[in-house]
Amino acid sequence: MRSPPIPEMATQEVQLNETLAHLKTESETLKTKLEEERAKLHDVELHQVAEKVEALGQFVMKTRRTLKGHGNKVLCMDWCKDKRRIVSSSQDGKVIVWDAFTTNKEHAVTMPCTWVMACAYAPSGCAVACGGLDNKCSVYPLSLDKNENLAAKKKSVAMHTNYLSACSFTNSDMQILTSSGDGTCALWDVESGQLLQSFHGHAADVLCLDLAPSETGNTFVSGGCDKKANVWDMRSGQCIQSFETHESDINSVRYYPSGDAFASGSDDATCRLYDLRADREVAIYSKESIIFGVSSVDFSLSGRLLFGGYNDYTINVWDVLKGTRVSILFGHENRVSTLRVSPDGTAFCTGSWDHTLRIWA
Amino acid sequence: MTINTLAKGELRREQMSCFQKMEKVVVAMQDPDIGIKMRNQRLLITVIPHAMTGLDIITWLVQKYRISEEEALHLGGMLLKYGYVYPLKEPRCLVLQPDESPYRFQTPYFWTSTRWPATELDYAIYLAKKNIRKQGELMEYERERYSLLHKRINHTWDFVVMQAREQLRASKQRRKADRIVLECQEQAYWLINRSPVRSVQLHHCTTQRTILHYIIEAFRRALGRNRVKSSVCLEGFVNYSEQYQNHDPIMQGCLPSNPWISDDTAYWSMNSEIVPIPTRLRVESWSFSFVELLSDPMGRREFMTYLEKEFSAENLCFWQACEDIRHGESSKIPEKVDDVYQNFLAPGATRWVNIDSKTMAKTLEGIKSPHRFVLDDAQMHIYFLMKKDSYPRYLKSELYKNLLAKAVVPQESKKSVFPFMRRQRHSSPSPAQAVAPATEEDGCAVSNSAV
Predict the structure, then answer these.
(1) Where is this chain compositionally biased, Low complexity type (chain B) (predicted)?
(2) What ipTM was estimated for this complex?
(3) Hey, which CATH number is domain B252-406, 1.10.167.10, 3.40.50.720, 3.50.90.10, 1.10.10.10?
(4) Do A146 and A248 lie in a common domain?
(5) A206 to chain B: nearest residue by CA?
(6) How far apart are CA B246 and CA A290, in angstroms?
(7) Shortest CB distance from B241 goes to which of A20, A295, A302?
(8) What whole-number distance in Å separates Cα of residue A311 and Cα of residue A350?
């Protein structure tokens, strides 16, 4: 499978006539039309619907574990399906697998590049994927033999023409989805390294992605420096929905647990919720006193809470339904760069430029 | 914010919008009516006008933004860190003190956003001034940079020294208080804006035209979409959150205890993939949606047992086989598709699945050139068949009801007798061990997943 063909053009003349300016105008016109269509069915706000819901009480969450060991900024982390292990990657090129419960380090790999911006745990728990400034995504099988050099078994899977910003295994160890500074996302076959599908439509670096937990499991969402969040069909490579309401780069996207919506976090210091059936933005999570960008977002298991890691070192906890800020958590001594809730929702993990990771519960 | 921003050290959109917001805050803080009440502050023997205390800043932020003192301390600290406010007593201490420590607003001339980029030349002149004014006044790191700069921009060094001398002469003509203020402002500025480190530039090119084509196509498709009214969609969120609230450990806690808080992994052992008796919450969740049932290996196994009783287990087996093709190795696809055909689709197959004739015809045609998604339509047909028919009946069955009745509700852990003694945190077997292969038919998965 390859990328979808560029729309057919009747003749050479038409091709030449379509100047860049003409295309841009057409794009803008369509965008305005789409916004009008979306507004027609918007009859109520989320917080209005949520008025009848009981307000949340006092909220106490603390750091329960601090994972020290990285020599530089932590850029990314991911949970293992076993609910206690994590993989993290750092600016110094190191990728570490931890048992976060005991805080023991179990594996460490040194990448041949610095700024390992993306890492992911395989669903089986038997491998990790990572990449960054090397423009690649590589898979490392995890061996229990302490003497084995993990780097020797490394498998290069993805190749982009610019840095790798995010990666994720799909439902198995056999396929990886990547996003890159080259403006594209791509689906790869791990075994052969073959490109299965590529996704074009972002006009700038793509910074993040998340796979949909839907029944038919065939879509994913990506966010980029073009301020857009795009929803893609993995089979056809087409962009099926697009949202552009943020005022700056989108650093993080995450699906609501039911798969009917997703949240985004941006440099414009807001988080937003987009409903996929209503096809529009339905909530903005912001506060005047919150000035710094959001690097990473994730939902609690029920989807009632949204956690955001911010560039001012804090974590803000939002009531998704009512739109209010429930709590602010302090602890990190530099930017929070990554945040993920554990698979069973018992805790969430943050990684920071202060070289540490923290588990909060 | 991208790696490009970080590597080049450039001031980009991300930082600009932050600076603009911080500037709004400090402008409001200096408003003659609603801002902070300024007073004169003593600094050694000099009186500095228009200053305020750390406590003033925090109190104002608390009132204006309706936030806690802790958050105001944090926000005020950011203003300090980015040079919008500077301390008079200890210039290098960029932590906001919630007491009588004196602070001043940085003049807009020295705001990071207006003075970007802080050039090497400016920095050299500043360091030269310090050096000339008083020997030994440069700090170690400043001395290092001074000599580095001297090497790097040696060709303009005469200009640097001349400028420095001129500026010093001009400042001598000012009143002492003004001079001190200006020196403070300048020092504060350079503490924040020391010369950035040069780094490798990263480029990428996009063919704008191609991208625009994709975007336009996407818009056209989007316009053709069916949309649902907001009122309908948004109710969905309220209902979902309500349904799952008891299952959300962060919201409601979990029984017997949250392992991260109590150091006791009982919660994980009780909920591992295969247990003799599952928890009540777990069995309940299978009734929330078909997806919830299927994604739990134990749920799937129970459902398989039920289907076997109903003589329709081939549906679930078929579905699982299709999943395996969709997510498995590319090289095995042709072989697996053929297996599926032999077992489930061929006329007279032992476990023939009941698919409508149109889908069957399309599928049989498709498997002549097998690919990853060739069975998608058939799989979806069977999935919805199970969801609409077998699943609701399963939930009403004796099998399910008995399991629900037997399911355990764990007791909340008693608090430790010795609350200050931490429980020992036990390791768990790593999933990276070799896993015994799962067999599809009996839905029995043997795994080494932790606890």
Answers:
(1) 427-438
(2) 0.90
(3) 1.10.167.10
(4) no
(5) B2
(6) 31
(7) A302
(8) 12
